[in-house]
Helix-turn-helix transcriptional regulator
Amino acid sequence: MILNMRVMRKRKKWTQEYVAQKIGLTRTAVHDIETGKQKPSYKVLVSLEDLFKMSHRKLFKQVDETYTK
């Protein structure tokens, strides 16, 4: 299972680096959030909601990897 954030980022054709730059993180931090290795702080969560224009509940919903293909 993967997070919807990754799916939405790829649909927008955004790189992890682009997202990181927009919200003030490193690419590695974005990767770790997408893979569930790291939980975002409240400030980062709000920044992600603003960037993706969707709620954190939708961003962090788990989706089946086959859904992304």
